[in-house]
Specification:
This protein is of the alpha/beta class. The protein has 13 helices and 20 strands. The chain has helices spanning 16-31, 55-71, 80-83, 86-91, 109-119, 161-165, 173-185, 221-230, 246-254, 271-277, 286-296, 315-328, 356-379, and strands at 7-12, 35-37, 45-50, 75-79, 100-103, 143-147, 149-150, 169-170, 190-194, 209-212, 215-218, 234-237, 261-263, 301-308, 332-337, 385-393, 397-401, 413-416, 426-434, 439-443. It has a five-stranded parallel sheet, with helices on both faces. Helix 8 (221-230) packs parallel to helix 9 (246-254) and helix 12 runs parallel beside helix 13. The protein is globular and about 60 Å long. The structure holds iron/sulfur cluster. Residues 152, 154-156, 159, 161-162, 196-197, 280 line the site of iron/sulfur cluster (SF4).
């Protein structure tokens, strides 16, 4: 007779990279026969994958640990916050919380599994051990994140990720491509390529070749993008920096091999702020680059994020950013108000801090400026027929995304259809209406 499998409840916080870590841990747990459950109450233990990027994310992580302890008791903590554990120790002192079983850092898969094994020995049952070969995905089946590297060689002054995750370590291209193939076989239609710095892929291994099928593929951004494009799915590139070799990838976009979409965190436009931020890439000529890319690939959609209120940002710097935004006409933009993350070099630059109310008003002005730009871009889509991938489907209405929209972060297309649509299906939609963030249309 089979003994009941221990049940684990899993909380995954943070960015897509943390999500990929969660998927790996969950895949291993399922492979070993553990079951997953949605509620802490019915679980034998809880794993919390934390995010420590901003203080607000840390607070969210501490709250998640607190409720797991309250609702369940046995808790294992992993992720970015585990790498600098003082805040966790302060909130949950070991003497008072013996049920906080282990605290490990990001990508510490083995330590997490060791802690689980210690608390809840795995049942040995080959029938429970069944795991789909592509692993367990936390994203819907039709799209998946593909993590190509860990860590980062840059040292942006506001960021502690290199401290937490170390320098760049690229996965061999062959390994990434085999994972992509498995995902597509399992029904994935869209691959979202992620890392801390996608365009730096392979620098650490000097672009070494690795085997994929009967050929050798270089561990290089362009080569990987080309090979992924050949697999036939939608391929979306995130966290790309405007290095010169990005121009070659734009050619793949014009040729329809990878999606005409670039997620580039520009962060600012004023040279003095960018310098203080120690941003990689030649940031000063980015407007020219953006224009050249658009000339080569007119359908290109660019998404970016910016920080307002960085220490030393003057009104003049900020105005420069607004002007840049007006000229760049980016499709999708997110903004953060600068937060002094503990351990970040930016706190020690000796630059004057921007008062909170100024940060707040700059944030508002920034978002207002971009809203007008996005609205105009979306209005320009009215009358077009665009391919849309369906994320949620009802009998006559569905929600999806065009090639210009990444899941979770960009807008949506609300689709009316005479026939029921399936999740993951790519349909042509005639766009009829647009608002500030979303567009609406009819499946044709
Ligand atoms: S590129 Fe900069 S912001 Fe991004 S992870 Fe590396 S150091 Fe941090």
């Amino acid at each position: 007779m089979t003994e009941a499998a221990p049940k684990i409840s899993f909380v995954s916080l943070g960015c897509p990279k943390a999500l990929v870590d969660s998927e790996r841990i969950i895949t291993r747990l399922r492979a070993e026969g553990y079951e997953l459950t949605r509620s802490h109450a019915g679980a034998d233990a809880v794993i919390v994958n934390t995010c420590g990027f901003l203080d607000s994310a840390k607070q969210e992580s501490l709250a998640a640990i607190g409720s797991a302890l309250k609702e369940n008791g046995k808790v294992i903590v992993t992720g970015c916050m585990g790498a600098e554990r003082e805040d966790i120790d302060a909130a949950f002192p070991a003497a008072l919380t013996p049920n906080l079983l282990a605290i490990t850092g990001p990508q510490a898969y083995e330590s997490v599994l060791d802690a689980v094994h210690k608390a809840l020995p795995a049942p040995h049952d080959p029938f429970v051990d069944l795991v789909p070969p592509q692993g367990v995905k936390l994203t819907p089946r039709h799209y998946a994140y593909l993590k190509i590297s860990e860590g980062c060689n840059n040292r942006c002054s506001f960021c502690i990720i290199p401290k937490l995750r170390g320098d760049l370590v690229s996965r061999p291209a062959g390994e990434v491509l085999r994972e992509a193939e498995k995902l597509l076989k399992a029904g994935v239609k869209e691959l979202l390529v992620i890392s801390q710095d996608t365009s730096a892929y392979g620098v650490d291994v000097k672009y070494a070749e690795s085997a994929f099928g009967d050929r050798q593929v270089r561990t290089k951004f362009l080569d990987l993008a080309r090979e992924l494009g050949d697999l036939g799915a939608w391929v979306r590139l995130h966290y790309v920096y405007p290095y010169p070799h990005v121009d070659d990838v734009i050619e793949l976009m014009s040729a329809g091999k990878v999606l005409p979409y670039l997620d580039i965190p520009f962060q600012h436009a004023s040279p003095s702020v960018l310098k203080a931020m120690k941003r990689p890439g030649n940031q000063e000529k980015t407007l020219d680059r953006v224009k050249a890319w658009r000339q080569a690939c007119p359908d290109l959609a660019i998404r970016s994020t910016f920080i307002v209120g960085f220490p030393g940002e003057t009104e003049e710097d900020f105005e420069m950013l607004l002007d840049w935004l007006t000229e760049a006409k980016l499709d999708r933009v997110g903004a953060f108000k600068y937060e002094p993350v503990r351990g970040a070099v930016a706190n020690d630059l000796g630059l004057p801090l921007v008062p909170d109310e100024v940060k707040e008003s700059r944030y508002r002005r920034f978002m207002e400026r971009q809203q007008g730009i996005s609205a105009r871009i979306l209005k320009g889509k009215i009358g077009k027929r665009l391919p849309v991938i369906i994320d949620e489907a009802g009998p006559t209405v569905a929600k999806g995304r065009t090639k210009a929209d990444a899941p979770e972060i960009d807008g949506a297309v609300h689709v009316f259809s005479r026939r029921p649509l399936r999740v993951g299906e790519i349909v042509t939609v005639k766009i009829e209406k647009a608002d500030a963030y979303d567009i609406h249309g009819v499946a044709v």
